[in-house]
Amino acid sequence: MDRRNFLRTSAGAAAGLTVMSALDASSAKATPPRLLIDDVLSQKYPFTLPALGYADNAVEPAVDAQTMSIHHDKHHAAYVTNLNKALETQTALQGKTLRELLTGLATLPDGARNAVRNNGGGHANHAMFWTVLAPNGAKAPSGTLAAAIMRDFGSVAACTAALKAAGLAQFGSGWTWLVRDGGGKLTVRGSANQDTPITDGGKPIVGVDVWEHAYYLKYQNRRTDYLDAVLGALNWDTAASAYGA
Ligand SMILES: [Fe+2]
């Protein structure tokens, strides 16, 4: 068994996986899938890299297989490794879930705060990205999420345009987000580095990585082309599950 299949198999068995795959896409419409992001936010030390849940080439042409492989197996894995290193000696923090760590950043010891912010954020943010890139989902929002988008943006096109604009406006490395606040209102925002809306109490509905490692192999400096492609490949079923009722 190669490493990827091992990861997929072991994580799937352990977590009772998660993101919709080609095989369960039809049944998932009746029973919303558990989301990778929810599994990851429930993890405690030692944190583990979740399986992507689909093939490296499943999101082509928007995301090429090589970028997907390196992004998941190397970049995301490094955030998990470094988060574990940061908590190795922080025994008081080892019983906290990733969600608790990220929402409680301000209360963490000085020796752990930045490492959790960067690496815990990186772990959660990438799990969100894999969630909304899962193949075989709806290509447009429907139901409660669609109604909320119409209410808060006027149209789906205006919502995705705002996501693109926030991604382009993010100087350097960061993310563009569609976030649900406590009252259900949707907003679009950018974040720097691995800062996550979760820390401020927001619920990510869509998160798109705009670090160069997410697109440089295929798109080089053309972040705008990358954003057009990825925003056109979003899985609106998993986004709707993230939004909830
Ligand atoms: Fe990334």
Give a verbal description of the structure:
- The protein has 245 residues and is mainly α.
- It folds into two domains: 3-133, Orthogonal Bundle (Helix Hairpins); 143-243, minor pseudopilin epsh fold.
- The protein contains eleven helices and three strands; from the N terminus they run H-H-H-H-H-H-H-H-E-E-E-H-H-H.
- Helix 3 (36-42) runs antiparallel to helix 6 (110-133) and helix 8 (156-169) packs antiparallel against helix 10.
- The protein has a three-stranded antiparallel β-sheet.
- The model is unreliable at 1-30 (pLDDT under 50).
- The site of fe (ii) ion (FE2) has 7 residues, from helix 4.
Provide the fold topology:
Elements: H1 3-15, H2 25-30, H3 36-42, H4 65-87, H5 98-103, H6 110-133, H7 143-153, H8 156-169, E1 174-180, E2 186-192, E3 203-209, H9 216-219, H10 223-232, H11 236-243
Antiparallel strand pairs: 1-2, 1-3
Helix pairs in contact: 3-6, 4-6, 8-10
Bound molecules: fe (ii) ion.
Residues 71, 75, 126, 209, 211, 213-214 line the site of fe (ii) ion.
